[in-house]
Amino acid sequence: MTSAESADSSGSPQRPGPVGDSAGGTPSRPRRRRRRGGRGRGRGQLSAVTEQQAKPETDGAPSEPAPAAKPARKQGTPTSKAKRPVPGRARPDPRIRTVRETSAGGLVVAGLDGADELRAALIGRVDRRGRTLWSLPKGHIEAGETAELTAIREVAEETGLTGTVLAPIGKIDYWFAVEGRRVHKTVHHFLLSWQSGDLSTEDYEVSEVAWVPLAELPTRLTYSDERKLVATARTVIDDLTADPAELAAREAAAPRSEPSAYERAAAERNAVRNDPPKPRRRRGGRRSRGRRGGGGGGGSGQT
What we know:
GO terms for molecular function: hydrolase activity. The chain is α+β, with helices and mostly antiparallel strands. It has a domain at 98-273: Nucleoside Triphosphate Pyrophosphohydrolase (Alpha-Beta Complex), CATH 3.90.79. 27% of the residues lie in helices and 23% in strands. The chain contains 9 helices and 7 strands. Strands 1, 2, 3, 4, 5, 6 and 7 form a 7-stranded mixed beta sheet that branches. Strand 1 (97-110) and strand 2 (119-126) form a beta hairpin.
């Protein structure tokens, strides 16, 4: 046995090198196994992404941009559908001032004694389109007035007729906008018996005044709410004409002259309806210096 063989045989046995390695060369590293379920993409996915990025656009048509991803909605927040305004209904502008007005008026009727045909006095006003709108005379309650006294005064001012109150026939309320204000108006109506006077158009707000037969009022009046009041007045008129003594007693009775708390408050609102609006106060006023400074200096800390 040679010395080389004795050196190879003594000691630990050697591991055979990989196939294809040259004799006496450095042995190559063992191959690492790929872990399954890793974070990286597989070869098939990488090749598909590479082909998609390198694919040229078609001639004659630009490529469509990818749709933007919708932002995730946080839990507990209301949906945007609840915040959308209702179609056909505009939200009120908070900068527009809202005021309340209270008025009184009446249906003055002639012929209750049975000597002539029943007829009522109506007033006509011309709107912006040039149309004549027929309605009952009415106006604001002023200081010291009851609703009955206001109805008597407004009938005299707008028609030139003097009447006496027989009975209330109802009230109506409605909304309208004028000169940057939203107005909620309430009108108390009364049935009046004509006593004296002739038709007159001296009031600047009235363009026409006319006697209209009671049966034609539903077709002549412009507003449906006043047409309903006329239906109520017809029932009261039938009862009073059937009892002449009751009719005479009501015509001779003096109207109520002491205003109620409601009528006094209404007169105050009507008096200030055209005043400029008061400046709005900010929510959560400024804090006092004692609180801002941590309560030092022995201050009370009240605002």
